[in-house]
């Protein structure tokens, strides 16, 4: 398929004071095809939400190239482009409790984008459109006049989805849309997002803090650690055989349904805490927690490169030159 979004070496740094720069996103590259879902996974503070907010231009990128639908949007953009992005890219947020204005009715919430982008639409037409959108997300027009507090978490997330869909965007950034919901509701929301994607050819960036649910929606998954992507692969390949030690650790934190497999599998336990994004370790930024760290890991920053078709990883264990220098056996080949 055709790429909808191409990101090259994107950075978003925040200057906190004269001496301190928080490198939330520190040089990431990936692309998303039309109609695809890319999962973006990492612990809190790894920069994944900042990626979403930088792509949708809630934040201005510090540097890097971003191309969306053939438009270059990495640097300065004019008001027309900004307006177009506000329409074509929508966000669904983690917390359906705080992302909906408590003083607005469902109709007002869902039609906000329509009022901005289709100002000529008659109120009656708009109401009709809102009712259609509510049906689409599994609610109905009897909900239209109510307020957010009258709904459950799952229903509120449906309202958030209806709001995002109102202007018929192409691309949706879903920032941990199920993290605040009961497990039983999570699958419903994931299924709804998948159905909507199939019917409308939507493209998703689906952000999550662990690997437990993302596989059900993602075609490919990018794993982030401390502002960079450490591994990117097709979902199945990633779960089948994670290459980066961090991906291995994230996966081994999820219990396996089969108790025999659970008992016998190799656990990767991480030591220490995630370093601060204001003070990133030299070389491989994962080395302070990596059980496989070697001398080269402190000295050389691993290159994010393709080790198999469609599969990229940033780790010296897969680099023949470094492994030869370390006198160790190359992983994986
Ligand atoms: Fe671990 Fe070294 Fe690979 Fe980094 S480069 S993940 S420290 S083995
Ligand atoms: Mg976040």
UniProtKB/TrEMBL annotation:
Domain (ABC transporter): give its ranges: 5-251
Cite the PROSITE patterns for this sequence: ABC_TRANSPORTER_1, ABC_TRANSPORTER_2
Q: Which UniProt keywords apply?
A: ATP-binding, Nucleotide-binding, Transport
Annotated Pfam families: ABC_tran (PF00005), oligo_HPY (PF08352)
One GO term under biological process is:
peptide transport
GO molecular function terms noted in the UniProt entry:
ATP binding; ATP hydrolysis activity
Transmembrane regions: none
Specify whether Nucleotide-binding is a keyword of the entry.
yes
| SMART domains for the chain | AAA
Q: Which domain of life is it from?
A: Bacteria
Q: Which family does it belong to?
A: Belongs to the ABC transporter superfamily.
Q: What is this protein called?
A: Peptide/nickel transport system ATP-binding protein/oligopeptide transport system ATP-binding protein
The organism is Edaphobacillus lindanitolerans
